[in-house]
Amino acid sequence: MSVSIRLSRGGAKKRPYYKVVVSNSRSPRDGKYLEQVGTYNPLLAKDDENRVKLNEDRVNYWLGVGAQPTDRVARMLDKAGIKERKATNNPQKGEPGEKAKERAEEKAEKLREAEEAAAAAAAAPAEEAPAAEEAAAEEASTEESTEA
Q1: Could you state, in order of their start, the residue ranges of all structural domains in the chain?
Q2: Across the chain, which distance is largest between two alpha carbons, in Å?
Q3: What Pfam families does UniProt report for this protein, alphabetically (predicted)?
Q4: Which of 39, 71, 90, 144 is 20 to 30 Å from 59 at the Cα level?
């Protein structure tokens, strides 16, 4: 008989309450179980100590006998420090593909070029402004000399 540590649902509609039970893996979710080893109330705050209650001695016994926890129960056991769980997700799965990376590089390059062009355009009028002031000063001095 394969034994699993899993959640058994209770509570009213839209107000779930779970028992952490040890049961035959072939029995129904809310059916007959061998032993209740804890409770889980998802309606409580995540930092509340009453959200997950586990009888550590019995959980360790059943794990020693060969009971396999479900994914959700394994997370609870890991958080409680009873059984360490390895991460099952693939960190490379969320990375963009090659074409998306190429598009992102092209977009960043175009943005860089636009910033450089804007900086060059901002620098060019600044250089022209003193030259325009000098030209105006020269015209004024020539006007003064013609009047004299």
Answers
A1: 3-80
A2: 118
A3: Ribosomal_S16 (PF00886)
A4: 90
Cross-strand partners of 111 = none
- What pLDDT score does 122 carry? 82
Closest CA to 38 of 7, 61, 68: 7
Backbone angles phi, psi at 69, to 5 degrees: -75, 150
Q: What pLDDT digit, counting tens, does each position of 42-81 carry?
A: 999 999 999 999 999 999 999 999 999 999 999 999 999 9
Q: What angle do CA 65, 68, 72 make, to 5 degrees?
A: 140
Candidate ranges 73-77, 90-94, 140-144; pick with highest mean pLDDT = 73-77
**Beta 52-54 vs 35-40: how paired, if at all?**
antiparallel
CATH number of 3-80: 3.30.1320.10
C-alpha 21/C-alpha 30 separation (Å) is 10
Are 20 and 37 in contact by the 8 Å Cβ rule? The answer is yes
